[in-house]
Amino acid sequence: MTKQVRVRFAPSPTGYLHVGGARTALFNWLFARKTGGKFILRIEDTDLARSTQESVDGLLRDLKWLNIDWDEGPEKGGDYGPYFQGERQEIYKKKALELVEAGLAYYCFCTDEELEAKKQIAEAEHKSLHYDGTCRNLSSDEVKRRLEAGEQGAIRLRVPDKDYFIDDIVRDRVEWKAGNVGDFIILRSNGMPVYNFAVTVDDALMKITHVIRAEEHLSNTLRQLIIYEAFGVEPPKFAHASLILGADKSKLSKRHGATSVGQYAEEGFLPEALVNFLALLGWNEGNDREIYTVPELIEAFSIERLTKAPGVFDKEKLLWLNGHHLRNMPPEKLVDLIRPVIQAALPEKPELLETEMLVKLLEQIQVRMTLVSDAADLAKAIYVSKEPEDEESINILEEAKKTPLFDSLIKHFETCEWNKDGYNTAIKESGKEAGVKGKNLYMPLRLKLTGEQHGSDLVGLLDLLGREEVLKRLKK
RNA sequence: GCCCCCAUCGUCUAGUGGCCUAGGACACAGCCCUUUCAAGGCUGCGACAUGGGUUCGAACCCCAUUGGGGGCGCCA
């Protein structure tokens, strides 16, 4: 029996979820859901200065918005906790000491100044910049004495002089020749673990089977391998996905525009669209498919088909996908998303917030929405009466006023049955009486009603506005 | 400087030696549909970084060059 898949997403809390992190989380999550494994969320809050409750909350909020749920982690617990690195300090210390006792790591009392000086000399002599091993062979008596004397010591790993490699699931074999790294620190003199040590200890203890992460961590893997080896633990499988780039092809950062999931949520993107987009940025099924629902993604996903080459974050395509998912959403569901938007846009018309009214509104505007937030302007264009300002529109209205069109419309609208057939007939009759048809009939009517040349279907518009409002606007 | 990764249309990508005069999608342009705008449909524009090999045959395999990216901390 193959062991159950256990994957993790291990962000450091910076207050929000970066889209790159979101994609990493998504890949892990999809893999777990696909294989029936566990998805673990672990917070790397070793850097306490940046790790506040708020920043953790922001992270969890964004993940939840994306509908990425975790099986173990914050708010959930689990058998392999704690899931905050900040609460695992004793574990790292204990594990580092184990290595010291086994002779695989050692205390180093070199000061920053000494190390800096050594580095400079090495540089000048064009030698390796690696740690020179000054404290490598201190006797245990001396170590004991210096520690008892109150000296602060860091713990360094004794790095074997040998080659290492991984068989990365997306990159195949990646090799490092011996001598790539010197004895590196695993536990700082203040007792805090170094990143590579903490992740490795955690991944090992949490029985992580697959490490799916971005390529920026590929180089770190070497040190992690050495640590796994020191502990005699078999490393997990690795899958290094490509990076997400900005338009200038450098790693996506804030200067490229919105990078946090929260920003996209606020802008009016749908989580299912962002998920669809992110999944396709660096992964594909091997066919031409572009549109996926979340269950379809779970079904189709495989880490073997992650892409090697980095990809540019193309907001245009995200926008298109969002429009697509929006149009495909059942109005009854979309209603809940646009209700707050409409409420904010038209606070003076609370009656519009009724589900029935919103569904009717969506019949008119849904096909023209790209973002959820578009509902605001589209609804205003309908419900807020206004005068056209551009010359062309004014001319069209002037021309119409030379005919009895508006008077006829008023007359017919006052008496016709207020339903689709009713006003269709009314419009046609009025057109006949005024001697206009086609564009010359519909355009002035639309302009008179909404002040705009373009917009939703006229018949639907009449229906939405109601007889009273229509007559009011025509008589104005 | 050293190490590692990557390289197909502007962008996301399909492609694993003959099916490729390189397919799809976004964007862009045109047309159609249509009372307008959207949406939708159709058409067009548009790429295998370069140079060497290997092979009967290379987008696909190998090497080099170039270009891009990432990593080299008592940061994560």
Based on the model shown, name its key terms.
single chain; 476 residues; mainly alpha; two-stranded parallel sheet; 48% helix; RNA-binding
Q: What is the compact description of this entry?
A:
The chain is mainly α and 476 residues long.
Query: What distance separates the N and C termini?
Result: 78 Å
Task: Please provide the ordered H/E string of secondary-structure elements.
Answer: EHEHHEHHEEEEHEHEEHHHEHHHHHHHHH
Helix content: 40-55%
Radius of gyration (Å): 32 Å
Oligomer state of the chains in this structure: single chain
**What are the segments in which pLDDT stays under 50 over at least 5 consecutive residues?**
none
**Which overall shape is indicated by the principal axes computed on the Cα atoms?**
elongated
With strands numbered from the N-terminus, the spatial order across the biggest sheet is: 3-4-7
* DSSP summary, beta strand count: 11
Quickly give the structural class.
mainly alpha
**Count of helix runs:** 19
User: What characterizes the major β-sheet?
Assistant: 3 strands, antiparallel
Average per-residue pLDDT, rounded, comes to 89
In terms of DSSP E residues, the strand content is: 5-15%
Describe it:
The chain is mainly alpha-helical and 476 residues long. Helices cover 48% and strands 9% of the residues. It is built from 19 helices and eleven strands. The strands form five sheets. The chain has a three-stranded antiparallel sheet. A two-stranded parallel sheet has the order 1-2. Strand 8, helix 7 and strand 9 form a beta-alpha-beta unit. Helix 6 (195-205) crosses helix 7 (220-231), helix 12 (331-345) crosses helix 13 and helix 15 packs across helix 18. The protein is elongated. 33% of the residues are buried. The protein binds one RNA strand of 76 nucleotides through helix 4, strand 6, helix 6, helix 7 and strand 11.
